[in-house]
Amino acid sequence: MFMGESTHNLDPKGRLTIPAKFRNQLGETFVIAKWMEHSLRAMPLDVWNKLEEQLNNLPIGKKDARAFKRFVMAGSMQAEFDKQGRVIIASNLKEHAKLEKEVVVTGVGDSFEIWSADNWQAYTEETAENFDDIAEGLVDFDF
């Protein structure tokens, strides 16, 4: 399970060091995809395969379904670590997530997300302010 958050810096070549606790769960090859709220989602191949199956089962007759599938599939890359545990983030993915220097890596269960530090801070502040309303609006979430 991916959980927690950590802050890292992109190096001048666009490489990002992934925390060891996350590297150990990813395997040698994994996928990084454009994701929601201007973030990236990194996932092991088995999680990617499930997502890909869900994308392929979207109704092609619906414009939003086609747009979502195109956005995720075209905005994905297969990735591997170098010997120092870094991964090169493709320029189109860096642009989407507005990654410049400071980056936050956040665990979200079966995968983890990569955010610009500024976007992550804004997102968490907004979410914290609305957390009670968000929790109240969830269906069948009993804890």
UniProtKB/TrEMBL annotation:
Where the protein is mainly located, per its record? cytoplasm
Keyword Repeat set for record = yes
Q: Which residues form a coiled coil?
A: none
UniProt cross-references to InterPro entries, sorted A to Z = MraZ, MraZ_C, MraZ_dom, MraZ_N, MraZ_sf, SpoVT-AbrB_dom, SpoVT-AbrB_sf
Residue ranges spanning the membrane: these are none
Compartments in which it is found: Cytoplasm, Nucleoid
- All copies of the SpoVT-AbrB domain together span 5-47, 76-119
Task: List keywords of the entry alphabetically.
Answer: Cytoplasm, DNA-binding, Repeat, Transcription, Transcription regulation
Q: What's the family?
A: Belongs to the MraZ family.
UniProt subunit comment = Forms oligomers.
Q: What is this protein called?
A: Transcriptional regulator MraZ
Annotated organism of origin:
Fructobacillus fructosus
